[in-house]
Structures are given as C-alpha cells and as structure tokens.
Amino acid sequence: MKLDGYSDSQRRAAVSSFNARYGEMEQALWCLSVNSRASLLAGQSSPVVETLVWTIKSWWGVMGVRSETKVQMARALAESLTWSPELFDPVPCHQQAAAQDASELVALLVRSSIDHGVTRREYSLASKVMHWLLPWGVPVYDSFVRGVLGVPASWDHPQAYRMVAEKTFAIASEVDGNSDWWGTVEPVSPLRARDKLMWWAGGGDAGTAAEVRDPWRVIRELNLRRP
After folding, report:
1. What is the pLDDT of residues 98-156, one digit of tens each?
2. What residue spans define the domains of the chain?
3. What is the phi-psi region of residue 203: left when phi exceeds 0, alpha when psi lies from -120 to 50, beta otherwise?
4. What is the rounded distance in angstroms from the CA atom of residue 173 to the CA atom of residue 16?
5. Angle at 27 (CA atoms; ends 102, 93), nearest 5 degrees
6. What is the rounded distance in angstroms from the CA atom of residue 46 to the CA atom of residue 58?
7. How far apart are CA 156 and CA 179, in angstroms?
8. CB-neighbour burial class of residue 150 (10 A; exposed 0-12, middle 13-18, buried 19+)
9. What sign has the CA pseudo-torsion 33, 37, 43, 49?
C-alpha cells in the first residue's frame, strides 16, 4: 500500500470517515492525555495516567498485556522519563533526529516499565501511549504498521521500531505543511492523520475494530471536564 498515491481529497475522505466512526474515542483519549500532563510534570503517577495506559491497551486491542501493567507502566512514565511543558508542544515532523528521539523515548519507556515489574517488552503499548502523549513526536508501532511499511518480520523490536519511525517521519514530513486533510478531531497532527490514513487504507474501512459505545464514561468516572 502506497500512501503517496492518495490525492488530498482521498486522504480527506479517509480521515473524515475514520473520525465519523472513532472521533468520540479519539477525543476521550486526548482528554485523558492532556489531563495526564500535570502528574507527569510532577514526576508522579495518578489514576488519570493509569487510565490512559489501560484505555489505550483496551481500545487499541493490544493483546497479552497483564493487568499489573496499568500501574507499572504509569509509574515508569512518571518516574523514569524527564518531562517538561515544552515537550508537549507541537513540533514539525521534518526536525532533525526526530526518528532517533522517538526511538529513544519508546525504548526508555519499555526498559523503565520492565524495571517497574512489567514482564515483557511492551513495544506496541509503549509506542501508543507515547504517541497519545506526544502525537507530534512519536509514531505508533505494531504488527500492522510493520507490515504496511515493509519492515522485516524477523527484525527485533528496537531495530524494527527505528525503521518504522524513520519511514513514518519521512511520509509525514511530506505533508507537514498541508493540513487541509488532517481533520479537526484533536490531536490534529500529521502523525495522527497519517496513522488514520494508513489504518483506513490498509483495511480499516472494513469496520472490524471495536467501537466503544460510551467513550466518555472513563472521563466521567475520573470527574474530568470534557473539552
């Protein structure tokens, strides 16, 4: 599947269709992401950070993740990574060393999660959690993305994710200045839009992914304000 073969109108239609089906879920995840920042900046985990980790795991269908990972990865996020307000700011996809920075962040979260008790290298979940916290700087990684981007199945996760990041940023940087087709559902970033397009064009339009009937339930349970 070649994403560069899509016209802007085709990209716009794909993203629009994705948002029509999953937009409420996207907005609820973004609400969790934004509300996680205060805890992370303080170097502390919280129910919001834990819920973000577990909601991404549940809604994005990350398989084989043990329930303890919810607390362990949340603590790793808060205690082992260095957060600053500027880190959450949008950045251009063509910045130098973007792929290397993303690879190092995901690898650090994987290692730190293991240090906090996670029993396996959760590269897929780590990349998705970091993507939702930093949607301008960290691409998503899983077997579907690897297949679409032509990353050899035999490659170990660190090497495979580095290639995913390099290819993703190369694609995203080509459309970084053209936001007409990205849609209006937050977070509006070229990496998020590219992920929607790649998933949709790769067969997501068949509608096999689960749709959460009431995605705002997790927000109400935490007494968070909807955006």
Report:
1. 999 999 999 999 999 999 999 999 999 999 999 999 999 999 999 888 888 899 999 99
2. 3-221
3. left
4. 21
5. 30
6. 18
7. 34
8. exposed
9. negative
